[in-house]
Amino acid sequence: MYIGRFFLINTLNPKKAKVTDTEILIDNPLSPYKDKIYLIFLVALALFGVVFVQYFSTVPLYYKEIRDLSELQIGLLLGLNGLVIFLFEMPLIAFAERKGWSQISSVIGGLILTGISFIFFFTTQYTSFLIVGMVVATLGEMIAFPFGNALALRRAKLGKQGAYMGLYSMSFSLSHIFGHNTGMQLVNTFSYDITWIFMMGVTLIALLLLFYVKKFLKKENDLLTEVSKT
Questions:
Q1: Phi/psi of residue 30, nearest 5 degrees
Q2: Chain-centre distance of CA 98, in angstroms?
Q3: Which residues make Cβ contacts (< 8 Å) with residue 44, sequence separation at least 6?
Q4: Residue 224 domain-assigned (yes or no)
Q5: Does residue 13 sit within a domain?
Q6: CATH of the domain at 117
Q7: Which residue, among 30, 48, 11, has the nearest Cα to 155 in the 3D structure?
Q8: Which of 115, 122, 144, 118 lies closest to 133 in space, CA to CA?
Q9: Residue 7 has pLDDT above 50, yes or no
Q10: Rg from Cα positions in the chain
Q11: Whether 147 contacts 103, CB under 8 Å
Q12: Cβ-contact 169, 46 below 8 angstroms
């Protein structure tokens, strides 16, 4: 189990995302703390992170305590996540780019898939559904995190990129701090089922925030298009 968890964390940790762009200095750079839409985006990503980190903490415990899986089986499930990413992440990103999926739409789609993956925990009769749920969560991570990083980097070019990307990394750090503890406290106080329902509720809140960001970005892009035509 620990080997699988190590593989999962080191493969999926969004803070390991590589940024290859060099910082571009502009006149009158916008502070990320004054960029309302960017802050809302980061709040949504932090909530996404709270949901996602359950696969590092409460989910393995659920596999052991409720589904009676062995450490080997749990390790294989977590390892499956990393394996799918290793094999399919780059082709999936290339496919999304060819299809012209916007970055914010990809993040929304990934969040939806991750939220849906918790539904499979309620199918107690069939252990095979745990595999399906893990694959669905993996697809969500593969779509959301790379495009989320790209969107943050693109937005960072409005101001000091270091400050923008520092806040981006901080949002995931906060999700790790609060996500693990929140999940564990919910399981201890209530139950696993209540915890999954709560996480799906958090997913819904994050989705609403992302849809707001998407609407704002569309208006912003339309305005820039009109200005460029004049």
A1: -80, 130
A2: 22
A3: 111, 206, 207, 209, 210, 213
A4: no
A5: no
A6: 1.20.1250.20
A7: 30
A8: 118
A9: no
A10: 19
A11: yes
A12: no
pLDDT at 125: 74
Contact 177, 50 (CB under 8 A): no
Query: What is the residue range of 197's domain?
Result: 2-7+30-217
Average pLDDT of 13-36? 63
Which residue intervals of the chain are DSSP H helices?
A: 2-12, 36-52, 58-65, 71-98, 103-117, 128-156, 161-189, 192-229
Number of domains in the chain: 1
Residue 142 in any domain: the answer is yes
Cα(223)–Cα(213) distance, integer angstroms: 15
The total number of residues written for the chain in this structure: 230
Mean pLDDT of 76-97: 93
Return d(Cα 101, Cα 50) in angstroms, integer.
25
25 located within any domain: no
Distances from the Cα of 11 to the Cα of 7, 64, 87, 138, 187, angstroms: 6, 22, 12, 11, 26
35: phi then psi, degrees, rounded to nearest 5? -90, 90
Cβ–Cβ under 8 Å, residues 148 and 45: yes
Cα separation, 126 vs 137, whole angstroms: 18
Residue from 196, 188, 193, 210 nearest 55 by CA: 196
And the tokens for 39? Answer: 């802050």
pTM: 0.85
